[in-house]
Design brief:
35% of the residues lie in helices and 27% in strands. By secondary structure, it is an alpha/beta fold. The chain has a single domain, classed as Glutaredoxin (3-Layer(aba) Sandwich). It has a five-stranded mixed sheet with strand order 1-3-2-4-5. It starts with a strand and ends with a helix. It comes from Evtepia gabavorous.
Amino acid sequence: MAITTINQENFDDQVTRSSAPVLLDFWAAWCGPCSMLSPVVEELAEEHPEISFGKVNVDEAPELAQRYQISAIPTLLLFRDGEPVDVSVGVKSKAELEAFLK
């Protein structure tokens, strides 16, 4: 499944109104660890079509980073029924992220 770019304009439609769980990857182009995590998130998106995946560039959508108090990147935020239910900060292995999604 494709990963959607999330910004202030599409956040409600893609995240808070989503009937599926949503995993948001908060990242920035200048962030080395974000580049390391990105391929793992892409693999998970392909393997978990039941979950919607989105990426939030903190430089382009600072209001979303501020709303969810993102103080370090990469940060993964898992939403269920439009509400954040879990957070993962830093680079994690695929196995760790598989467990995080459950």
